[in-house]
Amino acid sequence: MSLSTLEIAQLRADQTDYHPDTCILQTLTRTLDTVGGWSETWANTYTSVACRMAPLQMNRPETIDGAQMASMTRWILSVAHNQALDATMRCVHDSTTYEIEHVEDTHSNRTARRAYLRRVD
Description:
Blueprint: H1 5-15, E1 21-32, E2 38-56, E3 62-65, E4 68-71, E5 74-80, E6 90-93, E7 96-104, E8 112-119
Antiparallel strand pairs: 1-2, 1-6, 2-5, 3-4, 5-8, 6-7, 7-8
């Protein structure tokens, strides 16, 4: 069964009702320094992006990272279907920063874009 353009537009409009929060999407800028390295800065490229954050439950609640116990909590970010979003960005939601690990873009008739996030500590 195929959806009409009007039906897809209506589903996308309905999806925006499920974005109760806002976030900031940041992009990375690398600047060369005088000794052959670079410095990294994150720019607030997209601000006040309507979104929804939801925890993603993992089978293993904890893991060892750098000889320390670390939480395996991951998050799913949902934004508008046409929002620029890729795995090189970061997301700031409620003053907490998350790295985007993966963007889910392979389904047809997309009503939202979803990204899998990991909290930056």
